[in-house]
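Predict the 3D structure for this chain.
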Amino acid sequence: MSATDASPEIELTTAASPEIDLSASSRILDAMLDNEHPDKVKVAAWARENLDDGDLVDRDHSCTFWREGYSRIAQHGLLGLLADPSYGGQGLPLTDAILQLEGLGLGCRDDGLVFAATSTVLTFGLALERFGTDAQRQQWMPKIVSGEAVGSFSMTEPESGSDAFSLTTTATKTDDGYVLNGQKAWVTMAPVADVFMVFATVDPSLGRWGITAFLIPADTPGLIVGENVPKMGMRTTPFSNISFENCVVPESAVMGTEGSGASIFSSSMEAERGFLLVGSIGALERVLQDSIDYGRTREQFGQPIGSFQGVSHKLADIKLAHESARLLMYKAAALQQRGHGSMMAAALSKLAGSEGALAGAIAAVEVHGARGYVSEYGVERDLRNLSGGVIYGGASAIQKNIIARLLGLPA
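Done. Predicted structure below.
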């Protein structure tokens, strides 16, 4: 769905300026072309120094979220990159914020922690600031930016998957507000969340236009959070199901207007699709650097393995995947930042980023041989973490469907 499908009650995009801001255009171009941009490099260096506690293997094994690390990220200002200064944020342009998040992914080896931060900035926080009421923003944005509170974006259901709008969670209107019943599945940050952004159907007869978004505190009676679910990768990002059993919320919990939930979700997904893999793109650069170092120092048959074409060509493939994904991501960011439609660019960014990161991680395991297969060196962990990108935020097949449709092919 594009922004043009949006409900008339809610504005999803910023109108393009008739004049081009040359200084902004220069910053965008610098971000796209300078892989060693100072903003990215500074954050990467900070992350290496402050987010490496030596317990990552144990956290990964036990599926433990490092709340102290999350707080450090917040204290460094990274959770408020896009947030308005009135909420304690920095109010940066999108491309400037993405540069710093890319640096976080490059410098921090805890990919799950990075994913927790990027999903806060690019999904929950961005949606709350764009579509929350004044009261909702005043109550929650300063806490989200400071790391005092954790937000969770909750749309997917056990049977909905890629058919995002086939929701069974209902919100029944009452004199006092709404009563929610249903279940959400695979909800990122749910076990540690303080507030949930929840999508439910108020009027099933209206299809997607019957969907409404709600902002619901985690301690609301009838909102039940399940246990943390172990998963293949991103194990340090908490993840669980949540359910609603006659969960009563006031009318003030509605985000936007009743029936605008599909528009809010679609706008949020365009941002998530285009940029949520920014941490993975940073991680892919780290995977490449680690593999290059290994190729230079590991010797077989009396010479570094990097001198063999079978190895050097794999490293060249990783470089191509990284640069392609990175440029497409910044193109999508530039289009959004200038108020232009970015649906095609976002889908291309998601597809290139997820598929490239996965292919690069597989190549890194092959380059490292046995060391790439055991947990001690972290190469296999990168593979597990980067594999999820082909599923979350819209599977690769969905991105190809979007691209095909935008090319004018029959639906």
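The two ends are 12 Å apart (CA to CA).
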